[in-house]
Write a structure and sequence with these properties.
single chain; six-stranded parallel β-sheet; Rossmann fold
Length: 358
């Protein structure tokens, strides 16, 4: 088990789902006595503080797509630290492909987190398929992605492996605004695919009837065009006294324990870690039927699943919880039990080590 070295590769350490998982894997492998490392290629970020002290770490300060200085610096680090497995997350596939060209003996595992890859066509798909020939294994977070990498990429070692949640930061720094037991939370970076506008429209339907309820956005604010659209909608809809944006936060357990209902309103997903974190916090959830969400949540038993881009259906689902303490409690409990039974760190790491050995 301990005769290999593994490095997680991610483009940044901002608090997104893929980044959180990369850090959790690096820490968990170290606990198993494995020579564990993490590399961020382009940016550091808030998650750096969550890395265990003995996890090897390198920041490459990569400035461009093909950055020879970063590539050779990385190769030197791999050799020095006896690393023979690269675990590349999401968009870092191109960088590790370039590394493979100058260091062919290293084995590469590509971990696909986003459901959007299944929509690739034309030249972009051809490029991904070409790169995949140089990857020894592909890990997919849901069955749809696994089918895609098996049938479309035609990769021989394509494996489905569900994410696992873990509360790393146990501090209590963030204090949510609003009234206790009347808070709706969405744990997601402000990216268009997460469709916060859909949730805002649903909340606008509910607000006149339930004025004491508040909505809380936890996640990276990129201060881009999409972020501006969200803020503009909040002001124009007179929701600025009931919708709160917090940007990046690490004390997720603390935040979720202050929340009443967890929502994900995405247009596309793989298997969102935030959905599993809602489970750890025993939150009743409403999620859109994308990616693996509809498989994690049993509609009407451990949560409510709605169609994507349907604000009225989303509002009705949230209202079900507002009007039923029993549903909030029973759905949250069942979601918690499902997460603990089927998405544990122990099961994930055991399977991952087996995958590395292929």
């Amino acid at each position: 088990m301990n005769n290999f070295g593994v490095i997680q590769v991610i483009d940044s350490l901002n608090a997104g789902g893929a980044e959180v998982l990369a850090v959790n894997i690096a820490n968990s492998l170290l606990e198993k006595g494995i020579n564990s490392h993490l590399c961020t290629t382009r940016k550091e970020g808030i998650l750096k503080s969550s890395l265990k002290e003995k996890v090897g770490y390198i920041y490459l300060k990569r400035k461009k797509s093909i950055d020879f200085s970063a590539i050779f610096k990385f190769r030197k680090y791999l050799k020095k630290n006896s690393i023979n497995i690269i675990h590349a997350h999401s968009t870092s596939y191109f960088f590790v492909f370039c590394l493979k060209m100058v260091y062919p003996k290293v084995k590469i595992t590509w971990h696909i987190h986003s459901g959007n890859y299944t929509k690739l066509k034309g030249f972009k798909f051809f490029i991904i398929k070409f790169f995949s020939f140089f990857f020894d294994r592909i890990i997919n977070v849901n069955q749809e992605l696994n089918n895609w990498s098996t049938k479309k990429l035609k990769h021989k070692h394509s494996i489905k492996l569900e994410n696992f949640p873990l509360f790393n930061n146990l501090g209590k720094k963030t204090v949510l605004q609003g009234i206790e037991d009347k808070r709706i939370v969405i744990l997601s970076s402000l990216r268009e695919v997460k469709d916060h506008l859909n949730l805002l429209k649903a909340f606008k339907f509910l607000q006149p009837k339930y004025p004491e309820w508040t909505l809380h956005f936890i996640g990276k604010d990129f201060k881009d065009e999409y972020s501006n659209k969200i803020k503009q909608y909040i002001v124009e809809s007179n929701l600025d006294k009931s919708v709160y944006l917090y940007d990046l936060c690490l004390d997720i357990k603390n935040i979720l324990y202050q929340s009443t209902i967890g929502v994900l309103s995405s247009k596309s997903e793989g298997l969102p870690i935030s959905l599993l974190e809602y489970g750890l916090a025993k939150l009743p959830v409403v999620v859109t039927n994308v990616g693996e969400c509809g498989k994690v949540i049993e509609n009407g038993k451990s949560g409510i699943v709605v169609e994507k881009e349907n604000s009225l259906e989303l509002a009705n689902a949230i209202e079900e919880y507002i009007n039923s303490e029993e549903k909030k409690k029973s759905y949250g409990e069942l979601h918690y039990k499902n997460v603990k039974a089927n998405y544990s760190k122990e099961n994930f790491i055991k399977k991952l080590i087996t995958i590395y050995a292929i």
